[in-house]
Design goal:
113 residues; mainly alpha; single chain; 3 helices
Length: 113
């Protein structure tokens, strides 16, 4: 850790910035300790650690992208007619599409069996 810690931290900071780099640095060395017994004797340890650090930093970025983002106001149910996340209303407002709904821009007509 003393020999390669600064290099690993630089990699984490380059990918994540200073805020999340410390967590990725810690995750890197925890993963390295688990995998170290399987490392070949002639392996380049610094390159191996940099690879782990880069992958851990990417994992932190992906995890942040999956987290919910707080919003000030929750949109009303029903949305707008052009909202891509809503089904077209039919059947007296049941929220389900009719058995033969044509979706805007889609050449296929939906039909239930």
């Amino acid at each position: 850790m003393a020999e390669h810690g600064a290099t690993v931290l630089r990699v984490c900071r380059a990918v994540l910035g200073p805020a999340d780099a410390d967590d990725a640095w810690s995750e890197t060395f925890l993963a390295a300790l688990k995998a170290y017994p399987r490392l070949p004797a002639d392996a380049n340890v610094e390159a191996w650690l940099v690879t782990i650090a880069h992958r851990k930093a990417i994992d932190v970025t992906r995890a942040a992208a999956r987290r919910a983002v707080p919003v000030a106001d929750v949109p009303e149910p029903g949305g707008t007619p052009s909202s891509p996340t809503r089904w077209p209303r039919s059947r007296a407002g049941s929220g389900r599409p009719s058995p033969t709904t044509t979706w805007p821009g889609c050449p296929i007509r939906m039909s239930r069996p």
